[in-house]
Amino acid sequence: MKEIIIATKNRGKVKDFDTLFAPLNIKVTSLLDLPEEIEDIEETGTTFEENAAIKAEAICEKFRVPVIADDSGLVVDALNGAPGVYSARYAGEQKDDQANLQKVLKGLEDVAQEKRIARFVCVLAVAKPGEVTVFKRGECEGTIGKEPAGEFGFGYDPIFYPTGSKRTMAQMTPEEKNQISHRRKALDQLMNWVKEQ
Ligand SMILES: O=c1nc[nH]c2c1ncn2[C@H]1C[C@H](O)[C@@H](COP(=O)(O)OP(=O)(O)OP(=O)(O)O)O1
Ligand SMILES: [Mg+2]
């Protein structure tokens, strides 16, 4: 079995990657699995690409092995693109998923259903020692509901209805979510690129 390192501390992402890599027989190791505590990496970029590169390159430098990082978030048209790259800390430094999604619902209180358009964005950065960092992006279009629904997933999943679905991403099993997710689409791009190498 092959192993890849994903430079994340987010348990929800780790579960998504476990689901995505399971059919390929690839074991996912995250920063949560390492014996030493990895300090939080400051995400000072203003784009998903910049932040993904910061995380991938920091961990690649430290361990001198190939690393993937994921920077992702929810982009809401009626909120001028917020929370965007600030999705994790939208309602404050404590990175509270519930508070974050409530803040989005509050911001959309007076916005009609047809204008509640949003997309999830995922940028994967691959950093290898001595090589230029590579980026792949995936997006998943949808709309924001009026209230949270569903117990699966993480983050903003309970308020996000992918286009064509009557269920939120949190009402889908991990397998269903990751057939259509932004993370899936970014990973497909990455796999296509790997095959071309
Ligand atoms: O599939 C998803 N379903 C629901 N919500 C999602 C998803 N994908 C990203 N999100 C949200 C969660 C978090 O509020 C932000 C990611 O922020 P982001 O900085 O990339 O991750 P993080 O700080 O939680 O972990 P880390 O930087 O260690 O990977 O977007
Ligand atoms: Mg982060």
UniProtKB/TrEMBL annotation:
Annotated GO biological process: nucleotide metabolic process; purine nucleoside triphosphate catabolic process
Molecular-function annotations in GO: dITP diphosphatase activity; ITP diphosphatase activity; metal ion binding; nucleotide binding; ribonucleoside triphosphate phosphatase activity; XTP diphosphatase activity
Family: Belongs to the HAM1 NTPase family.
Comment on bound cofactor: Binds 1 Mg(2+) ion per subunit.
UniProt-listed Enzyme Commission number(s): 3.6.1.66
Binding residues for Mg(2+): E42, D71
Species of origin: Gracilibacillus oryzae
Cofactor dependence: Mg(2+)
PANTHER family registered for this protein in UniProt: INOSINE TRIPHOSPHATE PYROPHOSPHATASE, INOSINE TRIPHOSPHATE PYROPHOSPHATASE/HAM1 PROTEIN
Keywords: Hydrolase, Magnesium, Metal-binding, Nucleotide metabolism, Nucleotide-binding
Assembly and oligomerization: Homodimer.
Residues at which substrate binds: T8, K9, N10, R11, G12, K13, S72, F154, G155, Y156, D157, K177, H182, R183
Reaction equations catalysed: XTP + H2O = XMP + diphosphate + H(+); dITP + H2O = dIMP + diphosphate + H(+); ITP + H2O = IMP + diphosphate + H(+)
UniProt function note: Pyrophosphatase that catalyzes the hydrolysis of nucleoside triphosphates to their monophosphate derivatives, with a high preference for the non-canonical purine nucleotides XTP (xanthosine triphosphate), dITP (deoxyinosine triphosphate) and ITP. Seems to function as a house-cleaning enzyme that removes non-canonical purine nucleotides from the nucleotide pool, thus preventing their incorporation into DNA/RNA and avoiding chromosomal lesions.
Positions of the catalytic residues: D71 (proton acceptor)
GO cellular component terms listed in the entry, alphabetical order: cytosol
Name this protein carries in UniProt: dITP/XTP pyrophosphatase
One Pfam family, short name: Ham1p_like
Xref: NCBIfam families: PRK14822.1 (NF011397), RdgB/HAM1 family non-canonical purine NTP pyrophosphatase (TIGR00042)
